[in-house]
Amino acid sequence: MIFLYILGAIVAIVVILAIAAPKNYNVSRSITINKARSEVFPYIRYVKNQDNWSPWKKKDSNMKQEFIGNDGDVGFVSKWEGNKQVGTGQQEIVEILDGRTLRTKLTFLKPWESQSDAYITCSDEGSGTKVEWGFSGRHKVPANIFMLFMNMDKAVGKDFNEGLAELKSILESN
């Protein structure tokens, strides 16, 4: 009988945590690049260029990559299979608002399955360009319980800052 009470308490705790835990996430960072948007966006629109500034490429320089379609066009897919730090997944261009926004669908298969909507936006800021890089999505129950113990903004935000700083360096040096 005590076992049933303990089991019931555990189930109740899991249900309460699943209800209370965050289900949505949105992480983004931005930087201003001292170049005109007309010079910045043409570089950003090509997903393969992310290999030059993405912090994840640095975490596994030996990752296997496959590209399907025409880079810079809607429907282009970049697939990767890497170490534990980068996992396995794919990124597909789903929308391009020329000169302003690149939207992609990120699908992670390992180390855990998830799907996110990613974006890079460019807007005029003075004589430069403000670049915002981010992603958003929804955690499924019960996986959302783990988000009570992990701060997604801090975990991924650091990588976004690093990548944007590298992007700025590349674009401003040309």
UniProtKB/TrEMBL annotation:
Domain of life: Bacteria
Pfam families: Polyketide_cyc2 (PF10604)
InterPro entries reported for this sequence: Polyketide_cyclase/dehydratase, START-like_dom_sf
SUPFAM superfamilies per the UniProt record, alphabetical: Bet v1-like (SSF55961)
Name of the protein: Polyketide cyclase
Organism: Aureitalea marina
Higher taxonomy: Bacteria, Pseudomonadati, Bacteroidota, Flavobacteriia, Flavobacteriales
